Amino acid sequence: MKKFWMAVVLFSIGLSVFGAEDAVPLKEFLARTRNAAPVSSYAALEGEARHLRRGERTVTMPIYFAIILQPERMTGQIIIDGDEGYILGQTRKGGDSETSVVPMKANAGSAETESKLGRMGIRASDLTMSFLFYPALRELEPVSVRTVPCRVVLLEAPDRSETVKVYIARDHYFPIKAEFFRTGEEKEPYRSLEVNSFKKSDGLYYTDQLGLYGPGWRTIINFDGENRVGPFDPTKPPEIIRQLQ
Q1: Residue 173 is part of a domain; what is its CATH number?
Q2: Which pLDDT does position 17 carry in this prediction?
Q3: Is 176 exposed, middle or buried (0-12, 13-18, 19+ CB in 10 A)?
């Protein structure tokens, strides 16, 4: 059986683990999406983030993303431009689990505002996809995204600051697209995320390109460097957490 490992967004996806089932109840469907494979995995991905904003020059920065994913928890790291980094953590048992984002000491500003990561239009949760753990409001009408049949689920942030419409591959429990709406402004998303392509390493598949966009801006993250992906052995943990430059 093939196992698709969504390294960029921290999810082991067993595309053939469960098989196609049309009538899986929503609660079970989300549980499988959030914890699609019970195995432990890791990834260390290097690449480039390219940000385009209307009326401004294109900005390009190197990006590094490391992750250790276990059924009950996640730990990881994001480094942007070599000198700004964040340590990530998530307990993945509860339905409303969110990612903690702790700036490394050399950083100036926060992960979401006055920072290089924020100015590039990137949230840590874009890579961790922790929004999948938001409580579900309801299921919407199914659609196809790039010919893939999807179930569409509307989720709401615990603080009710936003809702997220997630398009999940019906037969594979894999999130393909997410649209983010500010509360009270549900007509058009203020930002969107799309998984664009995959690569295979050590028998596991991982996302090597992620697209983010909103009104007047777009960011493409390409993990095309020296990437390492594989099963995680706690007795021989990989050395993937880095120091800032």
Answers
A1: 2.50.20.10
A2: 40
A3: middle
